């Protein structure tokens, strides 16, 4: 991508454009890596069906959380 600068000289705009793109990618990359979260379903009570332990309310557990695409739900079964 060549442009004529003042005085008729050619100036290459590719390098400044690539530098801006590289700076933008570096600025965004750390946020993307930290974007996901791990959630242990039921926390210390574990993840069971309603018949095994009827007192666990998973809706109440989930109410305080804001799940996003890429989050992990971890299933921990206790003996």
UniProtKB/TrEMBL annotation:
Signal peptide: 1-35
Lineage: superkingdom: Eukaryota
Annotated keywords: Signal
A GO term for molecular function: electron transfer activity
Gene3D superfamilies: Cupredoxins - blue copper proteins
Record domain Phytocyanin: where: 37-79
Name of the protein: Phytocyanin domain-containing protein
Organism in which the protein naturally occurs: Eleusine coracana subsp. coracana
């Amino acid at each position: 991508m060549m442009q004529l600068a003042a005085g008729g000289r050619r100036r290459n705009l590719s390098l400044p454009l690539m530098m801006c793109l590289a700076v933008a990618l570096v600025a965004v990359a750390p946020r993307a890596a930290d974007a996901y979260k791990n959630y242990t379903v039921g926390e210390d009570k574990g993840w069971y069906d309603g018949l095994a332990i009827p007192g666990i309310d998973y809706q109440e557990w989930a109410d305080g959380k804001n799940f996003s695409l890429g989050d992990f739900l971890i299933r921990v079964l206790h003996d």
